Amino acid sequence: MTLLSWRDDYRVGVPLIDTEHQYLIALINEFHDKHANRITRPLATFVLNRLVSYAEEHFQHEETLMLKIGFPRLAHQQKLHEQLYFSIFLLQEELSREDAIADGKTMRFLRHWLLDHILDEDMDIGDFLRRKNAKAAQAAEEEEYRQAEEKAAAQAPIKVETATLEVVPE
User: Do 24 and 55 form a contact (C-beta atoms < 8 A)?
Assistant: First the structure.
């Protein structure tokens, strides 16, 4: 049974980030499937450990990208990532106890842990990058037009007026 399905409205517009979000959804689904089918605890724990590890890696990738593009809310995102990572780490610790079970509350947490962050926060990264790219494209287009005008002006034929002499008989 699938807990989460990828939809186009989850797409941030940055291929690496979107691919990693899809993989995080796959890991959450795999964890959900292991618990729903009562697969052995070690196997479910293994999947949860992969989810925690991959989430940390994904957050690092996002933060590197945000730094590279000059995203103004980097510090805010870093704080959120730290909180999200800590929450999933606590869940991992809790579920590693022998008597712990992943219930509906756990699955709702995992679902919202990722989707809320994508929809509420990560979309801003894609929007910022699109605006930045649009501004850069516009500036490049304006510069190209300016250079074309300069080139055209430099290559314009020089207009020389010639005087016509009129010979008047005396």
Answer: yes
